[in-house]
Design brief:
single chain, 3 domains, eight-stranded mixed beta sheet, 12 strands
């Protein structure tokens, strides 16, 4: 991408985030450098591209016109990149992903490692946060797509279920339930319970499941709220309480016997992990290749 094309990318990012500070984080430039890029475009076109007030930044009429054509130009560059890559067989560029903690810590590293073996010239940038924060990053344009779990209905994005998951109650091997395979919700409410923080996709799906079975949050013996699945596993292993987590996060613990997974008698706690993208997003060839790899990946083999 030439310097002029980069100016258009910076301009579009400011238009979409309505923030010079957020743009500086996304395009890896200082705020003064972002301002200079916009100033250079305004000097070239001899017009203001943004209307700035104390609190907001909006496109001027000229800015609206440039934004429409800039998006078209950047889409053409992306299309050219894809066509040339088909001929040369070379895939390069950047892929910026946001992943919720379960996917980001326990699934994505394997996928990225295998993808990089196939496409070593692609640079991967990963943000790992809870689902709510990943959706915020997507909305501000800081990431190209997200991999999340949880309730998505309030977000205006494209959703593609990509990986299946099941959640289990976990107890230490010393727990009286450790010899069992199934436990009832009524029994769960009587045990000290460890929960993920608000904004976590795992917490959202757990609360929704309990609610569907007539159990409210206040009915649980909630003793600790923790913002880390790793810390939850440690707390359960040490006997501080029980919890509910994804099958993906306890692969090693179940294999070595430090945690015991139990199904819930009233019905399995299943969910999907979703690929989320903004509608009409311009996707580079590198992103396209990674998304194809992601969709075709043999996830079940990670349990072998």
């Amino acid at each position: 991408m030439s310097l002029e094309d980069h100016k258009l990318k910076v301009f579009c990012t400011v238009a979409e985030t309505k923030s010079f500070s957020k743009t500086s984080e996304i395009v890896h430039l200082t705020q003064p450098a972002v301002s200079l890029q916009i100033q250079a475009l305004e000097e070239y076109y001899e017009t203001k591209l943004f209307d700035r007030t104390s609190n907001t930044i909006t496109l001027s009429p000229s800015g609206e016109v440039l934004y429409k054509y800039a998006k078209y130009i950047l889409a053409l560059y992306s299309a050219a990149e894809k066509e040339i890559a088909k001929i040369t067989g070379h895939t390069k560029g950047n892929v910026t992903i946001g992943a919720s903690t379960t996917i980001g810590n326990h699934i994505l590293p394997n996928v990225i490692f295998d993808f990089k073996k196939k496409h070593p010239k692609v640079k991967m940038n990963i943000f790992i946060e809870n689902t709510r924060k990943i959706m915020d990053l997507l909305n501000t344009g800081a990431i190209e797509f997200g991999l999340v779990e949880g309730e998505m209905s309030k977000y205006k994005v494209t959703l593609d279920p990509i990986i299946q998951d099941e959640l289990f109650v976990i107890v230490p091997p010393s727990h009286p339930w450790a010899k069992r395979k199934v436990i009832s919700i009524h029994e769960i409410t009587k045990e000290p319970f460890i929960m993920r923080e608000e904004g976590s996709g795992t917490r959202q799906v757990t609360e929704k499941y309990f609610s569907s079975k007539g159990v409210k949050l206040k009915d649980l013996n909630l003793t600790i709220t923790i913002g880390s699945t790793e810390s939850i596993k440690e707390a359960v292993e040490s006997g501080m309480g029980i919890s509910i987590v994804s099958k993906w996060v306890i692969r090693k613990e179940v294999k070595y016997g430090s945690l015991v997974p139990l199904s819930i008698k009233e019905g399995r706690l299943n969910r999907n992990f979703y690929l989320v993208m903004n509608k009409n997003a311009i996707i580079s060839h590198a992103v396209t290749e990674f998304l194809t790899f992601l969709r075709e990946y043999p996830y079940d083999e990670l349990f072998n």
